[in-house]
């Protein structure tokens, strides 16, 4: 069974997820000052840079945890053909992804239910609403 695995690095056109954070007015004012002084192009640029710096600081812990917990790091995409091959082999999947896990839109809910035992995603899961609904008790 061949499944595509890609390193997940933000590039033009890549999928991103929107998050919301609450900041104190003093922190926000300091961010705006750095933007105004030209250190960053906008608030988002500063926040992304700060997050990447923190992730780089903890990169070794992330690598060790990913290895220990056997997570796929990056993008894991499951096609209908992938899941049909799993079913034909009489196997079941335990999906563990740090990044983005996606299940193709043409995967019927019955096939997902028959082939996926569990899903643990630290990041984002993209699948049809029907597939997410039948797997709801298997998604952690």
> Major sheet, described briefly?
4 strands, mixed
The oligomeric status of these chains comes to: single chain
Structural class by SSE content: alpha/beta
Shape designation? elongated
Describe the structure.
The two termini are 24 Å apart. The chain has a four-stranded mixed sheet with strand order 1-2-3-4, with helices on one face. It is built from six helices and four strands. It is α/β, with parallel strands linked by helices and 140 residues long. It is elongated. The relative contact order is 0.14. The chain has two domains: 23-59; 69-136, no CATH class. It has helices at 25-36, 43-57, 59-68, 80-88, 109-115, 129-134; strands at residues 4-6, 72-78, 93-103, 116-126. The longest helix is centred in the middle third of the chain and has 15 residues, at 43-57.
């Amino acid at each position: 069974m061949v499944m595509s695995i890609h390193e997940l690095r933000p590039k033009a056109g890549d999928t991103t997820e929107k998050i919301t954070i609450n900041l104190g007015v003093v922190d926000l004012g300091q961010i705006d000052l750095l933007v105004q002084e030209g250190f960053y192009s906008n608030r988002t640029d500063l926040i992304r840079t700060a997050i990447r710096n923190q992730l780089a600081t903890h990169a070794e812990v992330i690598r060790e945890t990913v290895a220990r917990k056997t997570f796929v790091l990056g993008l894991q995409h499951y096609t209908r053909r992938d899941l049909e091959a799993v079913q034909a082999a009489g196997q079941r999947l335990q999906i563990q992804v740090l990044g983005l896990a996606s299940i193709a839109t043409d995967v019927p809910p019955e096939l997902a239910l028959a082939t996926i035992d569990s899903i643990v995603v630290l990041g984002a899961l993209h699948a049809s609403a029907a597939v997410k609904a039948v797997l709801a008790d298997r998604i952690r």
